[in-house]
Design brief:
With about 260 residues, the protein is an alpha/beta fold. It has two domains: about 140 residues, no CATH class; about 100 residues, no CATH class. The chain is built from nine helices and seven strands. Strands 1, 2, 3, 4, 5, 6 and 7 form a seven-stranded mixed beta sheet that branches. A hairpin with a 2-residue loop joins strand 4 and strand 5. The chain is globular. About 30% of the residues are buried.
Length: about 260
């Protein structure tokens, strides 16, 4: 929790260094892309200033080093030497955004950082760029009932979701750009099955406001919470995700895997 809070505060502070992004699509184009199942922000439409990205990555490395209980020499090598190769960094960023796992694996193999650690660092460093792009577009889009398991804005997977108190709509939140969209309650976000016999949920004794929805067809799961007296915009799902780690363990013990690869999991 302490690490996430510092990461989040650093992201918010440094996001001010990223220029506000004017919407690259307007009006009817927004609705048309949603109807056609296309992303509102395609990988090549995201503007990433490498100088700002490197500054964000350096500060976030500092946060992680401060929170680590042992020296992180590979981090120091990465920041002092490898981060200066902008051509390689640009290619790695492109592979990350395009979700080209083969190319991404090839490129990160040439860094001193553990691939999982570099993935986490890229994810939390690129998120502020996504926020700037997504926020302008989401205000123009109706995402309340988009039957897509992936984010209709950037294409990433949902970190988890919640049931909106006023109408019971299941709302999912993107693990990268933070956009929220409505999704049918009786449907698996990952394989789209609506067979009720394949869908079930579990919860911890004494707390049914936090549930894990399990799918027997694809063997994946997603966590869904019910805000208790909080407004939607005050409900911080990444923190809720960390607070419900016991539910991840319960699902994994039953043979299910998380549908979304999250930063801190």
């Amino acid at each position: 929790m302490g690490l996430y809070r510092e990461v989040f505060a650093t992201q918010r502070k440094l996001s001010r260094d990223i220029p506000d992004q004017l919407p690259h699509i307007e009006g009817g184009q927004v609705s048309l892309r949603i109807e056609q199942g296309k992303l509102l922000v395609e990988p090549d439409e995201l503007k990433v200033d490498l100088a700002v990205l490197k500054r964000i990555m350096r500060e976030l490395v500092g946060v992680m080093e401060k929170k680590s209980d042992k020296p992180m020499e590979e981090m120091e090598t990465f920041v002092a030497e490898e981060l200066e190769d902008e051509k390689k960094l640009s290619g790695t960023v492109d592979a990350f955004l395009e979700r080209d796992e083969e190319e991404f694996s090839r490129l990160v193999g040439g860094y001193s950082l553990d691939p999982e650690l570099l993935y986490m660092l890229l994810h939390i460093s690129l998120a502020p760029f996504m926020w700037k792009n997504a926020s302008a577009l989401v205000r123009k889009a109706d995402l309340d009932q988009v039957p897509q398991g992936k984010c209709p804005v950037c294409g990433d997977l949902p970190i988890m979701g919640f049931l909106r108190p006023e109408d019971g709509l299941r709302v999912l939140e993107c693990s990268l750009c933070g956009s929220r969209w409505g999704f049918p309650r009786i449907m698996c976000p990952f394989c789209k099955t609506v067979e009720q016999g394949d869908l079930k949920y579990i919860f911890a004794d004494g707390d049914d406001s936090r549930r894990v929805y399990l799918c027997d067809k694809c063997k994946k799961y997603i966590k869904i919470s019910t805000p208790m007296g909080e407004k939607d915009d005050e409900f911080v799902l990444p923190l809720e995700d960390l607070a419900t780690a016991h539910l991840d363990l319960a699902a994994e013990e039953r043979g299910y895997e998380r549908g979304c690869r999250t930063v801190f999991s």
